[in-house]
Amino acid sequence: MCLHYPKRGRCTRHEAGVRASEPASTAASFRPRSSSRRAVRPSQPLSSATWYDNKVLSEYQLNHSDVITFHNYNDTTSLVKEINELEKRGKPIICTEYMARIRNSRFETHLPIFKRYHVGAINWGFVSGKTNTIYQWGTPIPDGSEPKLWFHDIFRKDGTPYDVKETTFIRNITSSK
Question: pTM value?
């Protein structure tokens, strides 16, 4: 059963992810792919987002990325701490996954931090539908009904906002200096 996509029932290997409990060999298997990417002399920066608590893999990814990318679905204290650590590397930073309302990772709390620290931010989920990201990980709803508090998405299938106050906040913070 895929915890990320309960209606679909299964995850691809990528969606299931690499768990912290997997051995450090995960980093070893990542190395050959990473070095072969450099060998083709890419014309754009390379990056591999850190996630989970696999310190060996994360350190390798950070050392071999031109741009630091990371995932953080936690509260503001955790986010600021992670940004402060990543800034020490002196590379551009983009949070490639954040925003999980149930985990206190919200636009209203996190976008001001990203803006203050000049960190790019991409939330996971946009329109309710195909990937079922209105549902919280590990909390399937057997009948597929809509949860009271959406996990990720911003808009309903018809284009109306899940939360008008939230979309107004996003519009205001992204349009102001």
Answer: 0.78
